[in-house]
């Protein structure tokens, strides 16, 4: 990644483009802007970008279509979607299509900047070849290994998780501290073709809580009424030699 990350902002609102261009520039980013899909495609064809901030609603197409196409052509470019507050379906579909995060309009530029930095930190570097590395997550007294799909406790023993339980836990570890609704968890773990009224998430959460009851640092998960679930443990993502 360049020392000054290059951000592409795609939004048909001129005020938003101007605001973000000035604000992100002041935060140490290099910024290019596009008003619609046509201009976005032109920018992508001629420039190198480290991240895209993408509005879902564009005058000549959907940002979701751009996101879908980008996953096939340039999967290394992270995407943060901008959506209207009521566009929950678009947010869910965007995550399915590979968006790395989303932010509802209206938004605070400071929050968007924080999310940009967080996504850039998570993005895999495209540096010169180096020794193979693997990522593990450390939380409470446990570690999770995505590549081997193992969870290990402080004594080095495996925690017995089903595939669905493992997938649900990793969703939380990928989004530390985020409050995730039941619909989001269903989408991220099981796909949006499932019945959103089913209670499988609640069942899996109950199982995870039971299996991690001996974590030693208090409950790992918090239930927020009418909101969803939140992982309360501090998460550390560590790269190790593969």
**Strand share of the residues?**
25-35%
How many alpha or pi helices? 8
Helix content: 25-40%
Give the uncertain stretches in residue-range form: none
Shape: elongated
Give the tally of β-strands: 14
Terminal CA distance: 22 Å
Instruction: Return the domain count.
Output: 2
Strand order of the largest sheet: 2-1-3-6-7
Explained architecture:
The protein is α/β, with parallel strands linked by helices. The chain folds into two domains: 6-122, Rossmann fold; 133-241, Arc Repressor Mutant, subunit A. The protein is built from eight helices and 14 strands. The protein has helices at residues 14-26, 37-46, 63-73, 88-96, 109-122, 163-174, 182-190, 200-211; strands at 6-10, 30-34, 51-55, 57-58, 61-62, 79-84, 101-105, 133-139, 142-145, 150-152, 179-180, 221-224, 228-231, 235-241. The chain has a five-stranded parallel beta sheet with strand order 2-1-3-6-7, sandwiched between helices. A four-stranded antiparallel beta sheet has the order 10-9-8-14, with helices on one face. Helix 4 packs parallel to helix 7 and helix 6 crosses helix 8 (200-211). The mean pLDDT is 82.
